[in-house]
Design brief:
single chain, mainly alpha, 76% helix, flat
Length: 106
Amino acid sequence: MKSWIILLAAAALEIVWAAGLKSTAGFTRLWPSVGVIAAMAASMWLLALAARTLPIGTAYAVWTGIGAAGTAVFGILVLKEPASAARLACLVLVVAGVVGLKVFAK
């Protein structure tokens, strides 16, 4: 269970760095860039820790799935990106895949 909590923290940091990319202006703004790079490094480190005991395919897929879905939701809620029915349905599919990987892991 500890590995799954670490993996969730890694995924949360992935959302932070992905959402923060916009604020870096292509890594031309120093402090937003430092924050994004720090979140990237911490996210990867936590993913590596979780992968010590979780299957790497599962850990990586869950990490990217939560990161992708979370970043898309952030974009919809905060950045006012489109929230079409098709886009939301695709997000549901991503989340279903992540849940499936957790349910059927080891």
